[in-house]
Amino acid sequence: MSELNLQEVLDFAIDLAKKAGKAISDGQAKRFTEGTAAETKKNSADLLTEVDQATEKLVKEAITAKYPDHAFIGEESAQGSESVPEGGCWIVDPIDGTTNFVHGFPYCCISIGFTYKKEPVMGVIYAPFLDHLYYALQGHGAYLVTAQAPEPRRLPLAKPTPLPSMRQAVVAMEWGSDRRSEILEAKLQSFRRLCGDPEDVEGGKMVQGIRSIGSAALVSASIAAGSIDVYYEIGTWSWDQCAGTAILREAGGVTVGSKAWTSKALASDSMFGTVPPEVLMGRKYLSIRAIGDTPQESGRAAQKRLIKEFYDAVVEFDPK
Ligand code: 2AM
Ligand code: CA
Hints:
Elements: H1 6-34, E1 39-40, E2 47-48, H2 50-66, E3 71-74, E4 89-96, H3 98-103, E5 109-116, E6 119-127, E7 132-137, E8 142-146, E9 153-154, E10 170-172, H4 181-195, E11 209-211, H5 216-225, E12 230-234, H6 238-250, E13 254-256, H7 259-268, H8 277-280, E14 284-288, H9 299-313
Parallel strand pairs: 3-4, 10-11, 10-12
Antiparallel strand pairs: 1-2, 4-5, 5-6, 6-7, 7-8, 8-9, 12-14, 13-14
Bound molecules: adenosine-2'-monophosphate and calcium ion.
């Protein structure tokens, strides 16, 4: 595997993401014409379509033909107990944001991540209805290509600004598909503390806004772009996060895992290394955008401060 050409891996993944994007938009046009209803997985809020399955098949077959000795983890074929191998491993969500796809809300995408030596080193995210392509290769930066701006633009799109406190932050959080009361109570408490006016809500952080756009990958891409400040998620899987993590890290962002993992990482600064398998596969994620240095504080120190502040405010739970 020492001869693995990562630039070739990236070029192949970009080409594949565009082909998958065409399959996704053709699939939606057909479903809309025929008035097809979505099937459900674990409950009525967890959707699956034949387009998810056909797109994963297309992507998996292309990868297996090109890189027969690489591993493949895809949402539709995964058993949930996968681990990240040492060699090349493709971690793919054929449609991230399936609910949006079914409803015609354009925030859905194909997410193609790649790990090597157990680290996310490449990511490609393509949103076919927006025609937004995000990609990154470890050590070579993260980029955005759109129909309006076809020349690759380096991410973040603007020079990172300081982030003095959670009060200046726009936070992405989702309701998820697990709607049991225990989960909802934890989420409601987190939303309350993040939104709340501290004059009236104990521990209120009064963030500038909370957004739920329904695609983990596109939120991570927005963290990379600098247009969302913080992304907190429990319950998503490696295929929802792998590509996005690779992209946002190349744009100066940082992703940490559970509260327990993070408290150790904050003490040792290891959160600024690559995302380890226990975070990638751990189903608990907190990502923060690149933050500009100030005379008083480096951007990294600010990221650490905000991670602490955020984790003090939210209630953690274990996903099913
Ligand atoms: P999907 O569209 O591939 O299912 C919306 O909440 C985001 O979270 C989407 O990216 C969705 O991916 C993802 N997601 C997948 N499984 C989830 C789970 N069990 N709980 C919460 N979010 C999940
Ligand atoms: Ca999916």
